[in-house]
Amino acid sequence: MQSARIFEFKGKILTVRYDVKRCIHAKECVNGLPRVFDPKKRPWIEPDQADADELAAVIMRCPTGALHYSHTEVESAETTPDENTLQVCKDGPLYLRGALQLHNADGEILMQENRVALCRCGKSKNKPFCDNTHIDAGFSDEGALPQQTTPESAEQGPLKLTFLRNGPILAQGGLAVHSADQKNSCMHNKTAFCRCGASANKPYCDGTHNSIGFQAE
Known about the structure:
This protein has helices at about 30, 50-60, 135, 210, and strands spanning about 5-10, 15-20, 65-70, 85-90, 95-105, 110-120, 160-165, 170-180, 185-195. The protein is mainly beta.
């Protein structure tokens, strides 16, 4: 994981934080509030160009967590989604939202987040996060889900995500997984997601990382 490069844009009510390394140009911000987010201008983020509630709502649409905000009068303004969800992106990353706790293989906590985009092509230079390398790598996957033979009832509470060394993402906690086309969903309390890009059971791990010599901390 590369060191964060975070810039702050201060407004009268909200301060917007932008992490360059986490941004993959999903453009939810630019499309949602172009008068605030304009890449052609400097500064490219002007928080006071929109109502604070409207700006906060658009920032929460950022799927990667590259954008966050803080309130000048409230210590912790951002809300955590009530449900932990994972959206598979066609030919792209895993988008997760919720009470997310990211851990390395040694069990050490890397961060607590409410939105992340995780690499699943195996090629990102900013693992475990997506950096759009899947585009040049030609990663291809429709984002379908295998049939769930035994539906689960998702537990409530935080979702622990552990990035196993040279292996998959271990997810522990209630999680709703949605296919790329939004037509199918699965519920899990413990499962493992592929991050080597080669599983025949995407988005889940099938052990292929062992045979291809996948390496990642």
